[in-house]
Amino acid sequence: MKERKKEAPICPRCNGKDVRSRIRTEDYWCRRCGYIGPREEFIRKEDEVR
Q: Which of 6, 13, 49, 50 registers the highest number of CB atoms within 10 A of its CB?
């Protein structure tokens, strides 16, 4: 299996993976619950998952 270069963003509120980036503000927003936040909240480190 290939390793992904970028980790998929995950919504910190609802754990949804349907996250879109907002180009102008560089925020991410979740299409499932409508949460908007900075990139750091959505990109999880591998240490946190395991």
A: 13
pLDDT at 32: 94
Q: Which residues are paired to 21 by β-bridges?
A: 28
**H helix or E strand, kind and range, residue 49:** helix 46-49
Domain range annotation of the chain? 1-45
Whether residue 23 has pLDDT greater than 90: no
Question: Looking at residue 1, what is its pLDDT?
Answer: 58
For domain 1-45, the CATH architecture is Single Sheet (2.20)
CA angle 36, 30, 45 (to 5 degrees): 85
